[in-house]
UniProtKB/TrEMBL annotation:
Keywords (A to Z) from UniProt: Membrane, Transmembrane, Transmembrane helix
Annotated protein name in UniProt: N-acetylglucosaminylphosphatidylinositol deacetylase
Gene3D superfamilies xrefs: LmbE-like
Keyword Nucleotidyltransferase: no
Homology family: Belongs to the PIGL family.
InterPro entries reported for this sequence: GlcNAc_PI_deacetylase-related, LmbE-like_dom_sf
Its EC number(s): 3.5.1.89
Tagged with keyword Transmembrane: yes
SUPFAM superfamilies for this protein: LmbE-like
GO molecular function terms listed in the Swiss-Prot or TrEMBL record: N-acetylglucosaminylphosphatidylinositol deacetylase activity
Lineage: Eukaryota, Fungi, Fungi incertae sedis, Mucoromycota, Mucoromycotina
Length: 311
């Protein structure tokens, strides 16, 4: 009779020991599973709004010389006004043979200047001047020169010229830059072009590269989806009532800075080497964006693709 309590205690200790062993095995597995899958969780509008309002660091990846003024300048001005540390990476080298033809051959009528331009500009001149306009736009926004980085990746321009290998090289270069920045600034928000949702005709490879790179990075659980925000550019081909994205934010208080950025691409003084290449390249986008204080955003793993407006 006296041995029963002892026997029960032994059974209890055995059960507790077995339970402890099970927990030691199961808990680490659960932790690993949750950690590995956290990057794939859907992004919420509240999360992205908070990130854009006050990111620890903002890193911008501008596809081409002019996309900064069209799509990103309001956000850049917002960050600088709120003392958010920023880095700006220009992806393309500025190659644009079609623009060279417009400016140099005399074959195309310019409605803006009511003439056919025949300036002595070759393809190298176009790249150089476009980058000068980009740097002037950054200066107009008061971006410190040491925060501006030229990736100088060649733009093959037409979809036919972008072979799969060339596109993968571009995408991997952007991906490597994102991961390098993430290692240095692990809590940064990465601002990219919405190349998957935002297009006018065939998707532009330079716009798409950042989206695809971010998708691969998050699928590999190297970063979280809410560390990326994607901006629409071609949306400005539409009238205001038809400009759509997954989320919009009103940054109209920064329109003066935004306009200065656009004006850097409208500066026309050929005698002093200013050809307004951005304006000649995409006049509709330039004219429409300059009076719009809205940023148009998409993001990864979004389960509610509604046109949400955040004031």
């Amino acid at each position: 009779m006296k041995e029963k309590p002892l026997h029960r205690r032994k059974l209890l200790f055995t059960f507790l020991a077995a339970l402890a062993v099970c927990l030691l095995i199961i808990v680490p597995i659960v932790i690993v599973y949750v950690t590995k899958n956290s990057a794939a969780l859907p992004v919420t509008y509240a999360t992205l709004q908070a990130e854009i309002d006050r990111p620890d660091v903002s890193i911008y990846y501008i596809p081409h010389q002019d996309d900064d003024a069209i799509a990103f300048s309001l956000s850049i001005a917002h960050d600088l006004a709120n003392n958010v540390p920023i880095q700006v990476h220009l992806i393309s080298d500025g190659a644009n043979h079609a623009l060279q033809q417009i400016m140099a051959t005399g074959l195309y009528h310019c409605e803006w200047h009511n003439t056919n331009h025949s300036f002595p500009l070759d393809d190298q001149d176009i790249s150089r001047i476009r980058t000068q306009e980009f740097l002037a736009s950054m200066a107009a926004l008061n971006v410190p020169p040491d925060k501006i980085h030229l990736m100088n990746l060649h733009d093959y321009q037409t979809p036919a010229a972008w072979t799969a290998d060339l596109y993968n090289q571009l995408k991997n270069s952007v991906k490597e830059q994102i991961l390098t920045n993430h290692a240095q600034y692990p809590n940064a928000l990465h601002h990219c072009s919405s190349g998957y949702y935002d297009f006018d005709g065939p998707r532009n490879p330079v716009h798409l590269a950042c989206w695809d790179a971010a998708t691969e990075i998050t699928n590999a659980n190297l970063m979280k989806a809410d560390q990326f925000a994607f901006y629409r550019t071609y949306v400005f081909y539409q009238p205001p009532s038809h400009r759509w994205s997954q989320m919009t934010m009103n940054f109209s208080q920064f329109i003066p800075q935004h306009q200065l950025s656009v004006e850097a691409y409208q500066a026309y003084d050929p005698g002093n080497g200013q050809y307004a290449l951005g304006m000649h390249s995409v006049p509709i986008l330039m004219n429409n964006t300059i009076v719009d204080g809205i940023i148009y955003l998409d993001f990864l793993n979004n389960t509610f693709p509604n046109n949400i407006t955040v004031s």
